[in-house]
Each structure stands twice: as C-alpha cells, then as structure tokens.
Write a structure and sequence with these properties.
Distance between the termini: 45 Å
Number of helices: 10
Low-confidence stretches: 1-43
Helix content: 40-55%
Order of helices and strands: HEEHEEEEEHHEHHHHHHE
Strand content: 15-25%
Shape: extended
Structural class: alpha+beta
Number of strands: 9
Largest sheet: 5 strands, antiparallel
Mean pLDDT: 87
Radius of gyration: 26 Å
C-alpha cells in the first residue's frame, strides 16, 4: 500500500474538517472538500475505488459568488497592534522578590518516576510563565513563592488521559532549580518599541505596514472564499449516485485522523468537540455529512477534468509545491507521484471553476 498524503489546501476547500478550514455546525459539511488519496488518512484498508457516479453534471461555469469585503476597520487595526504588543511584553529580570503568577521563571528540572528520570522530563534553562497552564497541574503552583537559586521537589501526578500511556495517572517527582525570575510588563507602542521589533523607525511607519499586512490577509481570505463558494456551488448544481461503502470508508478515515490527533494531545473526543460547542453525536453527524461532500467533490473534479481536458503539468506541480514551501521532488519522494498529481489536479480544477465564476 503506497503512502497517502494529507495536504492542507485551506483556500481550495480540499482538506478534511480537521485541517482547520471547515466551519462549525452545518457549514462544516459544506466547506469540507476533496479528500482524494492525496488527502486521506493513511490506512492499511484497501481503498474503495468505486465512489459512485455523477448522474447529472450541473453548471460549473458562470456560478455566482460574492466576494467578501477586504476593508480593514480601525477596530481591526487596533486589535492587531494590541496583539503584537501583548505578544512582545517588556521582560525584566528581578531579584528583590519571590516568583508570583504572571512571572517567567527560568528553570532546570528533572522528572522522575520511581526514582528514575523519564524521557522528556528533563530540561535546562527553560522559561516557564507561571499561571500559563503549560505544565501539568501543580507544577507551576509549586514554584509560586520561590526565589532565585531555590531548589524544590514537586510531588505530582500526571492526568489519567495524558498522551503518554507510561505516564498517564502516574505519580512522579520533579526536582526543579530556579535560575532566574523575570517580570513581564505591558509593552508601549512608541518609536523605541517599533525600532526594537522591526526595521521601521516610527510608529506611523509601523502602523501603515500593519495595515498593509491586514489588507493582504483579507484579500487572501477573500480569494479563498471565492474558491470555496464556487466549488460548492458547482457541487450543489450536480446530482450523484454515491457508493455508500466509499462514503463510510471516507468517514472512518476522517474519524481515525481525528482520534489520532486528539490522543496525541491527551484529550478525549468529548473534550475536543466541546471547544466548538458541539456534542459527540453532533460532531459525528457533521463528519458523516462532510465525508459525503468529500466524495461528491472527488467525482466532480474528475468529471470536470475529463470534460474540459484539464491536465497536470510541471507548472501545476511546482505551483502546488510552492504553496507548501517545498519543491516537487520532495513531495513526490514523500508521498508518490500519483498522490502529488491528484492534489495538483484539485488545484487546477478549482482554479478553472474560479476563473469562470461570476464574482459579485
């Protein structure tokens, strides 16, 4: 079984919901896109090649889509600038008091289970913000009140659902040395901050550049939305007779991908879907709908490519590789030429639909 490739084609609506391009609830199913072998989760099960048929290929030229506004409001600009300030606080090392929540402590630590250091539990010179929740419960609280040079032993227990089965629910001891304590203060937008954080000299220059970045981002999002909406309009204009077994397999592949990702982060499915305000049952229904949509999109891409004589050439492969910051050979070596070409075909067909769309 050759490798399959999961390429995140957010703008082209060509990834599973999990890739982060889908929308919540009913919109999820509509924005989840083509999931070919190039995008399917790797599996040992033989892929069902009979996806079904398009019984009626509807209009895919001249579909009407509305371009979202690319105007950047004053509020959006100020929010972006504030986020930059928040991400770059002024940090000063202090020696006159003990560590408190919000401080950054530079630490060395060794984690031990049954007196033996465990893999991944040791670090030197690590900067940890107290109160950030970055470490397991009790670790950060155990360093509140410590002073520079202090050594502390923290008796802790890993959570039951921790991603590493060897540590899940296990009692451990962390020996920690506090090397330094640093205090964070809110950054101030002035010329000094601008000169420290960028190649610009003044606040006005920095503000203008930030505005230009936001405008570029909005234009990119608008183009992606056009691609999504045009593709979905073409899908909805057609009629299908799907092979339910292929749809079920698509669903299982997507669910397997989710489960693997969720377990890696030490979460349960219920924990994950609650982030989006969904129950497990709602999530599963959305995923079933998205699996059906993915099959429809596969069939549509194949039908349009055949009817229009759309081919994959080196230029298409190179353009796709550029999207991922790599080169064609690297992709082909990793995933195989067929998988790369399948994904490049998605680019070509979606771009064809977009170029022939009526944009309002």
């Amino acid at each position: 079984m050759r490798k399959s490739m999961k390429l995140t084609l957010c703008g082209l609506a060509a990834v599973m919901l999990v890739a982060g391009c889908g929308k919540k609830d009913a919109e999820v199913a509509e924005t989840t896109a083509v999931e070919t072998e190039a995008g399917a989760a790797e599996t040992t099960e033989a892929e069902i090649t009979d996806k079904g048929v398009i019984t009626k290929l509807g209009d895919y030229k001249g579909v009407e889509v509305t371009k979202m506004s690319t105007e950047v409001t004053d509020e959006e600009l100020e929010a972006k600038i504030q986020s930059i300030l928040d991400a770059n606080p002024e940090i000063t090392e202090i020696t006159g008091r003990a560590a408190q929540n919000g401080d950054i402590v530079n630490i060395d630590y060794v984690g031990m289970k049954d007196g033996v250091a465990f893999d991944g539990g040791t670090a030197e010179g690590y900067d940890l913000e107290l109160g950030s929740g970055s470490f397991i419960d009790g670790f950060e609280d155990g360093l509140v009140g410590a002073k520079t040079g202090d050594e502390r032993s923290l008796n802790l227990t890993f959570p039951e659902n921790y991603g590493n089965a060897d540590l899940a629910g296990q009692a451990v001891v962390f020996d920690v040395t506090v090397n330094a304590i640093k205090e964070k203060k809110d950054a101030v937008l002035d010329d000094a901050f601008v000169q420290k954080m960028s190649d610009f000299t003044t606040v006005d220059e920095f503000r203008a550049d930030t505005l230009a970045d936001l405008e570029e981002q909005k234009e990119t999002q608008a183009q992606q939305q056009i691609e999504n909406d045009a593709l979905l309009a073409a899908v909805n204009n057609s009629e299908y007779d799907l092979n339910q077994a292929a749809v079920d397999q698509q669903y299982e592949q997507q669910m397997s991908y989710y489960n693997s990702m969720i377990q890696m982060y030490g979460m349960t499915l219920a924990d994950y879907v609650s982030i989006f305000g969904m129950t497990e049952e709602q999530f599963q229904e959305e995923l079933k709908t998205s699996a059906e949509m993915a099959i429809k999109q596969q069939l549509l891409v194949e039908a349009i490519a055949e009817k229009e004589g759309i081919q994959v050439d080196d230029a298409a492969r190179e353009k796709m590789a550029e999207q991922y910051g790599t080169d064609v050979k690297t992709l082909q070596d990793s995933y195989g030429e067929e998988a790369v070409d399948e994904t490049a075909m998605i680019y070509n067909v979606v771009n064809f639909i977009k170029e022939n769309a009526v944009i309002k």
